[in-house]
Write a structure and sequence with these properties.
The protein is of the alpha+beta class. Helix content is 38%, strand content 22%.
Length: 148
């Protein structure tokens, strides 16, 4: 089975209002640990929302609170240096081509919703957790787009 396309956008600085708006829209009860697939989600969320860079990522799935049935996961990453990375993983149903089309639509949507200056789609990889990793993944995504 092909990997699910992941869509990531990065806010260069933690903007708590935008972050909470994103979470309210896409994850039910996101303030509760049960919404996330991590044993220490409350601690990670509390630290991240206070601006502590941790290098931690939280994942919500449809069984734990993702609102959109077309998504496999919603991701929230607190990089090791600064900012925040938000993402969604698009379900491959009904097929891979449709999933990539949907991923591109999600990219446009998230960039617009969050006012994110950058974003990309990649095949089922964890979010970049430093500015340097982000730049590498952005370059890779752009080169794969121009090569297709």
């Amino acid at each position: 089975m092909a990997p699910c396309p992941d869509v990531y956008v990065r806010l260069p600085h933690l903007d708590r209002l935008r972050l909470e708006s994103f979470l309210d829209a896409h994850v039910t009860s996101w303030r509760e640990s049960a919404a996330w697939l991590s044993e220490n989600a409350s601690d990670i969320l509390r630290a991240g929302l206070s601006g502590s860079p941790s290098g931690e990522t939280l994942y919500a799935s449809p069984s734990s609170g993702v609102r959109d049935t077309g998504l496999s996961f919603v991701m929230l990453a607190f990089p090791r240096d600064s900012g925040v990375v938000l993402g969604v993983s698009v379900d491959l149903e009904p097929d891979e081509d449709a999933a990539m089309t949907m991923a591109e639509k999600w990219l446009v949507r998230l960039m617009r919703e969050l006012g994110a200056p950058q974003g990309f789609v990649q095949a089922e990889e964890p979010p970049p957790l430093t500015e340097a990793e982000w730049q590498v993944e952005m370059a890779r995504a752009l080169s794969s787009r121009s090569g297709s």
